[in-house]
Amino acid sequence: MFKTGDGKWDGNVKTTSTYNMAEVVLYNLKPNVKASTLKVRLCSRSTGNCTNYKTVGDFEGAYLVSFSYLKPATYDVDVAYTGSGSVSGKLDAIAGREIQKN
Length: 102
What we know:
This protein is an all-beta fold.
């Protein structure tokens, strides 16, 4: 479970040199809000450096955001809501592998 605006990390994901991308999926949101009102960033536990916030996309009902070409590290996930109040729900953060295009 996560809740925006509570000052806590909302999840984490570990990347490696092989699995250097991360996808964050948000679901069971309360209240039910548009994907475009949610932003996600990743912050490295070892360096404290964070990615820029990325706006969540709505892919056939799945609220998803992807981060590519990450350095191997454990990243904490921060979800932000651009509306008033807060949003809570469930989050899955998954490391994956970039597929090389020929």
